[in-house]
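haha ok so turns out i had the wrong file open the whole time. this is the CORRECT one, sorry everyone. sequence first:
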Amino acid sequence: MDMEEGLTAVDNIVTQFNTYEDFLDSQITTVDLYYLEDEVLARQLVELGYRGTGEVIKREDFEARKKAIEIARLAERTQKK
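then structure:
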């Protein structure tokens, strides 16, 4: 099975963003920032699931998936050699 076929929705999100903050920022709208006037508060609301336009993912889950995907990529590269 190809690695891309085995990716879940969460894995796709994790591979799309470099950091958890980038993921949170993608969920924040300009209207959110207009009313909240605080980017950190907007990120916290997204992280808690109160705001945002997508799936709620905890920081620990994001970082664990990111690490697992990187390990899988390294293992695949090593196996090909």
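Residues 1-6 have pLDDT under 50 and may be disordered.
again sry for the mixup
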